[in-house]
Write a structure and sequence with these properties.
The complex is a heterodimer of chains A (112) and B (114). With 112 residues, chain A is an all-beta fold. Chain A is built from no helices and 11 strands. In chain A, strands 2, 4, 5, 9, 10 and 11 form a 6-stranded mixed beta sheet that branches. Chain A has a 5-stranded antiparallel beta sheet with strand order 1-3-8-7-6, with no helix packed on it. In chain A, a hairpin with a 3-residue loop joins strand 6 (56-58) and strand 7 (62-67). Chain B has strands at residues 5-7, 10-13, 19-24, 31-37, 44-50, 53-57, 64-68, 74-78, 87-94, 104-105, 109-113. In chain B, strands 2, 4, 5, 6, 9, 10 and 11 form a 7-stranded mixed beta sheet that branches. In chain B, strands 1-3-8-7 form a 4-stranded antiparallel beta sheet, with no helix packed on it. Chain B is globular and about 40 Å long.
């Protein structure tokens, strides 16, 4: 079946360090992936997306890497800031139009 | 430009009651999806509405129903509430047909069933 999972439930980093959040997916037919950030009491906020015809995409301080061979994607955050503290979800577009399958999430805690 | 707006923000209901949640999509968007997010978990897809019809559905019972209006706003109805229906209910919108599939989420409605 389709599933999106995350390797680590919690990640603690020092302010200024780089953060890497990992995600595994099981549906090899998936062609679109999204990273969302969710702060306490708020809805998920779009960070960056990537399609299966790419292996890397960069945004402002963020990079998403996609490895289709092992069905793995990662989110890299450069120079992590306290405002980056949140739960991060990867989501897979599951066959239908914009039917997203989310993993359980990784909590990122940034320490001064 | 208003993003996705949901109402109410918080709601407390008793088991067996019925509830209606509302969503206004982002300006220019015509497709609305609803998700249920239990505490400590990722959002789970409930269903999606486009052109006032339910187009896709996740693994949720018939107690969960919805509606989309001509102005693209949407309602989520849940009948015969169970304690397990307590969750954050999220609405997401996109504009179908553009090729873009970035979904914008609202702040959610926190439903507590007692």
């Amino acid at each position: 079946g389709e599933s999106v999972g995350l390797h680590l439930p919690t990640l603690s980093v020092q302010e200024g360090d780089n953060s890497i959040i990992n995600c595994a997916y099981s549906n090899s037919a998936s062609d679109y992936f999204i990273w969302y950030k969710q702060e306490s009491g708020k809805g998920p906020q779009f960070i960056i997306d990537i399609r299966s015809n790419m292996d890397k995409r960069q945004g402002q301080r963020v990079t998403v890497l996609l490895n289709k061979t092992v069905k793995h994607l990662s989110l890299q955050i450069a120079a992590t800031q306290p405002g980056d503290s949140a739960v991060y979800f990867c989501a897979e577009n599951s066959g239908g139009y914009n039917k997203l399958i989310f993993g359980a999430g990784t909590r990122l805690a940034v320490h001064p | 430009d208003a993003g996705v707006t949901q109402s109410p923000t918080h709601l407390i209901k008793t088991r067996g009651q019925q509830v209606t949640l509302r969503c206004s999509p982002k300006s220019g968007h015509d497709t609305v999806s609803w998700y249920q997010q239990a505490l400590g978990q990722g959002p789970q897809f409930i269903f999606q509405y486009y052109e006032e019809e339910e187009r896709q559905r996740g693994n949720f019972p018939d107690r969960f129903s919805g509606h989309q209006f001509p102005n693209y706003s949407s309602e989520l109805n849940v009948n015969a509430l169970l304690l397990g229906d307590s969750a954050l209910y999220l609405c997401a919108s996109v504009r179908k047909g553009t090729g873009a599939t970035e979904a914008f989420f609202g702040q959610g409605t926190r439903l507590t069933v007692v």
